[in-house]
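Researcher: I'm preparing a figure for a lab meeting and need a structural model of a single chain. I don't have an experimental structure, so a prediction will have to do for now. The sequence is pasted below. Please return the structure as tokens so I can convert it later.
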Amino acid sequence: MKLHQVLSAAALFLLANAASAMPFVNGGFEDGNTNGWTTGGGYRGGIPNSAIAPSDFLPGGSLYDNTSNRSTINAVGTVDGNLGAALGSTVYSGNYSYRTEDLFFGGYASVISQKVLNYTDANIFFAWKAVLENGGHAEDNSAEVVVSLHDDTTNTQLISRVYNAGAGGGGVDARFTELNGVFYTADWQIEQLAIDALLAGHDFTLSLLVADCDPTGHFGYAYIDGFGSRVPPVDLPEPASAALMLLGLGGLVAARRCGKKA
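Model: Understood. Here is the structure written out token by token.
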């Protein structure tokens, strides 16, 4: 085979490989919806934590129920309906986050998930906050949150955060604070994974599952934001504020020019 044919074949291979590589879609929910994500939920009453998985509550799963949506896009400035200011900001970056599961008890679970193919960016980044009501149940029956990053290519669990509101606080760690029987993460929990040569080009699935307690009387929910390949800027100025800042900078530049002319 001639050299130019080899180079052409290599170029076509690289183009095809690049074309199939997928970034995260709508990682910060900044268009106000869940485009690029798969969401689901259903009733988990009677099923212990050890027997449920995110796939159970997604379309096609054994517990999936599409009759109601218990999760929502969450706007900046929203105050948590149960903990108020104690939880702090419900948006990590930009104007929107996503709240998985509702603020009430009832024995339900909700999931948000996204799969990317041939991922080639240098990092995977995301942030989450969880709220789990302690009802005095055993850990296997309490409100639970499951944060998961799975390498589908090698069938390896890369990030797994599993917490529940079991009696005695044994189902949480130092990330959580307790207030009036509710365990919660006052700070955003930052997850960041470097994609090295061993992981580059793999397929990954990211998911967040949150469930009320098994007997149905205590709530669980979580906020998630910032899925993507880089750490997003935090506390971005509002558009009006940004415009005022630019006008102010323009005034300073004009003032300096006038001073030089004088």
